[in-house]
Design brief:
Layout: H1 2-18, H2 29-32, E1 37-42, H3 49-64, E2 70-75, H4 80-88, E3 94-98, H5 99-107, E4 118-123, E5 128-134, E6 149-151, H6 160-169, E7 178-180, H7 184-192, E8 198-203, H8 208-216, E9 219-221, H9 226-235, E10 240-244, E11 256-260, E12 264-269, H10 274-286, H11 288-294, H12 303-306, H13 316-324
Parallel strand pairs: 1-2, 1-3, 6-7, 6-8
Antiparallel strand pairs: 3-12, 4-12, 5-8, 5-9, 10-11
Helix pairs in contact: 3-11, 7-8, 10-13
């Protein structure tokens, strides 16, 4: 019913815009205003990139979607897994997700109880993630993680969907470590008080958690084995090479050749209204400069990136816009 309501409101708003807003002298404001379209956009817990960037997307949609009467709310959630389930139940209209988590959700594998009918609207910023450790911890390689207390992200957020393949490619399992759950800022605290020998953190570059950790102590960036890295890239669409430029973080004098472990992407349901998805895609793409003003991760809204395949089909509404502007591969 929500989706039918959105379609009706969108059609009424589009008609209003096409007719010049009604607008003869003496018209009541209530008669000329477009119908309100209430949209919800799932993000993640406050403190991470998803929450701030999701808010930037919602603000841009509201700012430039005035002709359609959009009222978009960025909702704090526990992250990708909750977002996918709430999209499926109709509680959300759009959401941010990690491409690795969506990859398994749409296939109904790796613990998902069914195949969720998610579709990509646009591929966004890379999630450049890695393990970091205090310089005096003795943990300098992936093999050194064995037997250690290791931060692995927020419980229920779905980090295991890319952490398990990462560990597996290096011959390590979850049973070889003692996993600790914490937010990214909480992970920094685990390092600071010695509760963890290493923590897994990442997101768009620069990442606030790594900036915080490197500002308070000397840290190691634990490298991935090159053979294991290539194996992951060959096996999964969501893994790809990514480099953290030198001097991004305090004490990081050399580039770090790491991995995008699953880009952030904007998703919706397969049965979401095509016209709505088309218009949202168009609005965000054409007003990407406004997104960048609110969060630097908006720089990923460019032709070469938004249509990149990370393993989840694109929604027909998004495809139609990308075809119109000539960037659909």
């Amino acid at each position: 019913m929500r989706r039918v309501g959105f379609l009706v409101a969108l059609m009424v708003s589009a008609l209003f815009v096409a007719c010049g807003g009604g607008g003869g002298d003496g018209d009541d404001a209530s008669e000329s205003a477009p119908s309100r379209v209430f949209l919800s956009l799932g993000t993640a817990p406050p403190g991470g990139t998803f929450f701030v960037f999701g808010s930037a997307l919602a603000e841009t949609m509201n700012e430039f979607g005035g002709g359609f009467g959009w009222n978009t709310t960025a909702e704090a959630t526990s992250g990708s897994q909750e977002n996918i389930r709430r999209l499926d139940s109709g509680e959300l209209d759009f959401a941010l997700s990690n491409a690795a988590i969506t990859y398994f959700a749409v296939r109904g594998t790796e613990g998902w109880e069914k195949a969720y009918q998610m579709r990509t609207v646009m591929t966004l910023a890379p999630n450049v993630a890695l393990w970091i450790s205090p310089a005096d911890s003795g943990v300098e390689t992936m093999a050194d993680l064995r037997g250690q207390r290791v931060g692995v992200g927020v419980a229920g957020a779905g980090f295991e969907y890319f952490i398990r393949p990462l560990l597996g490619a290096h011959g390590i399992t979850y049973d070889d470590i003692t996993p600790l759950n914490a937010t990214q800022s909480g992970a920094v605290d685990l390092l600071a008080d010695g509760s963890a020998a290493a923590v897994f953190v990442g997101g768009a570059i620069p990442n606030p958690a790594i900036t915080q950790a490197s500002a308070s102590q000397e840290i190691n960036f634990i490298p991935f084995d090159e053979t294991a890295k290539q194996q992951l890239i060959d096996e999964y669409l969501f893994f790809r090479p990514a480099t953290i430029p030198a001097e991004t973080y305090r004490g990081q004098t050399e580039p770090f050749n790491g991995l995008d472990v699953g880009s952030m992407h904007l998703i919706t349901m397969a049965n979401a209204d095509e016209e709505l998805v088309y218009t949202v895609t168009k609005t965000l793409y054409e007003n990407s400069a406004s997104v960048v003003e609110k969060h630097g991760a908006g720089r990923a809204i460019v032709a070469a990136n938004v249509v990149r395949d990370s393993g989840t089909e694109f929604h027909p509404g998004a495809i139609r816009f990308y075809q119109e502007i000539g960037i659909w591969p």
